[in-house]
Amino acid sequence: MRKILVTGALGQIGSELTTELRRIYGANNVVASGRRLKEGHEKLIESGPFEIVDITNGKELHEMVKKHNINTIINLAAILSAVGEKYPEECWNINMNGLYNVLEVAREENCMVFTPSSIAAFGPTTPPDNTPQDTIQRPTTMYGVTKVAGELLCDYYFKKFGVDTRGVRFPGLISYETLPGGGTTDYAVHIYYDALKNKRYTSFIAKGTMMDMMYMPDALDAIIQLMEADPSKLIHRNAFNVTAMSFDPEMIAGSIRKFIPEFELEYDVDPVRQAIADSWPNSLDDSAAREEWGWDPKYDLNGMTKDMLEKLKIKLGL
Prior knowledge:
Elements (H helix, E strand, L loop, with lengths): L3 E4 L4 H14 L4 E5 L7 H5 L3 E3 L5 H10 L4 E4 L5 H6 L1 H22 L2 E3 L2 E2 L23 H20 L3 E2 L1 E3 L1 E3 L12 H11 L2 E4 L7 E5 H13 L11 E2 L3 E3 L1 H9 L6 E4 L3 H8 L8 H7 L7 H16 L2
Parallel strand pairs: 1-2, 1-4, 2-3, 4-5, 5-7, 6-8, 8-12, 9-11, 10-14
Antiparallel strand pairs: 11-13
Helix pairs in contact: 1-8, 3-5, 5-6, 7-9
């Protein structure tokens, strides 16, 4: 039986993943954790065990893992790209020192560890189109640096200590449930809210900027499928490219106009986030994930847009 700890459980991925894991494995078998309580997450916090845990405190983390007999850690606690450029020291501390503590606890308590990487692990010298699984990684953001280092550290703990580490390189993630927390791809979530409420959106990402994206239900499936995959078939383990679609702001606006014909898109480009976006791939080759553990996303752009707008109408009471 899995006894799962989700760190960063009140974040964009964690809040939805925790609910899904509790549905699959049982509420009492999934411990959610975060550095602090957040308003709006009362239902999740009350639906199963919840702990206040700071992963940069290794002793505190270790005590909590032992308390709940945890055997699987899903480490989602992280500072994202745009916020990481404002606070690089904190980004390094949480993303790297926190991950080190997670891996040390996993080594001592024989836990599996899932830690997501990101398309931010690539950089401007990476081949931008159909980016290979194994290629040059020279990121230009602190977030990207921590993701490359995290991939390597997880590989090290698997090879050196036999810790069962696994991970994927997520593209931008889009969800109607939880707003994102300071990433470069956040525009692709906010655009749907503004389309419904205002029939217009001002993008901080420039026209023609292609980026890989994924709808949250597919992201949750990727985590669970990789967790349950046969370890003997995993070659890349901690850095699988995964993707579902690639688009620029004009393409997502065109998809929205299929449902809201009067929608208007404007631009006010943020140079910081645009520079980050320009350093990332346009599209990823995810054939390794497909071959090694059967990755197969369900949503394309129009399918996601239809579902997002339907769900957001209900959420926003429109």
